[in-house]
């Protein structure tokens, strides 16, 4: 999950990493606007500075104008729904600092450069020697001498401060299961180091461990994107096909087996949609939404669920909730078994929805219904 800058900075603040004071401003809530300030578009893509998504404002009037203009922008196809308005920093130098995973060394990797600012990609391409790369040995951890080497490379004199800063970044990276923490620019001010930008990406597989964090971040992202918010499709794999039997499964293996069975029984699937290993009512709901949005003309919908980690009561809840919001006229064929099977079946029955026990019978019915059979 990629975080907005304001979300990344909230994590920074909590971790003791210095960030400018600031407030989030939206079209409907502009209370946080102040000046002098830096007014910054909140989108998940980078390169906002170059695209006009970051404006420095000296007066409140300038800030209001900047807010209007940025809130009407689209950056790389993403409409701007929120701004981060921050105290302006007095910049003496702009560094680049990041930690991510490196496929080559198969370790976490720190990257640091004194040529921070807007265009680190072109620095990497044209003058790679300006970027220091320091793999972190998983056994030794982040050692003092590596942090000193980074400080030397950047030419930053306050070693103690730099050490503390980098250790906090490293701690955050590990504790929040990040796959990327990037600070560009990390600026030097008269008061020391300051993270002026924050790009944080959390490993989606950490969801079970960091439930609260994911919930908070996702609900903030949903609130921003508004009613038509794209929900978290993180775990859903969707591939459109040409047939008329809509298909949803809760695993890739089950999905592929079912594709074969549909074909064997003379039908054709309209899609391949699998929800990934860990699911919830919301994911079930989103899977149905996705199939019906892309394939409104399917003739039947076949849902094949096997409860392992995921629970059939939650799956049933998602199905019932979706149908409550979007009544459908085509036959629905749901086969469920495994964890919390009885509870799931009860929910389905109470909603007046049939459930199947046998996979072959379910597939046969879905194919028959799609062909117009009763
Ligand atoms: P990005 O272009 O999406 O990476 O957005 P950034 O947050 O990195 O901002 C782009 C550039 O705007 C930075 O590299 C800074 O040069 C400049 N900038 C951002 N905030 C401030 C600020 O408070 N003061 C000054 N002087 N410049 C800023
Ligand atoms: Mn940046």
Characterization of the model:
- Helix 4 (144-154) packs across helix 5 (159-175) and helix 9 (312-325) packs parallel to helix 10 (341-350).
- With 374 residues, this protein is of the alpha+beta class.
- 39% of the residues are buried.
- The strands form five sheets. Strands 7, 8, 9, 10, 11 and 12 form a six-stranded antiparallel sheet that branches. A four-stranded antiparallel sheet has the order 1-6-2-3, with helices on one face.
- The chain has eleven helices and 17 strands.
- It binds guanosine-5'-diphosphate (GDP) and manganese (II) ion.
- Guanosine-5'-diphosphate binds at residues 38, 40, 46-49, 54, 56, 88-89, 91, 94, 117-118, 184-185, 196-197.
Give a short synopsis of this structure.
It contains 11 helices and 17 strands.
How is the biggest beta sheet arranged? 6 strands, antiparallel
Q: Number of DSSP helices?
A: 11
Helicity level: 25-40%
Amino- and carboxy-terminal Cα gap: 44 Å
- The computed structural class is alpha+beta
Q: What percent of residues are in strands? A: 25-35%
Overall shape: it is: elongated
Q: What string gives the helices and strands in order? A: HEEEHEEEEEHEHHEEEHEEHEHEHEHH
Task: Indicate the low-confidence ranges by residue numbers.
Answer: 227-231
Please provide the count of β strands: 17
Instruction: List cofactors, ions and other ligands.
Output: guanosine-5'-diphosphate, manganese (II) ion
The overall pLDDT average reads 94
Radius of gyration: 25 Å
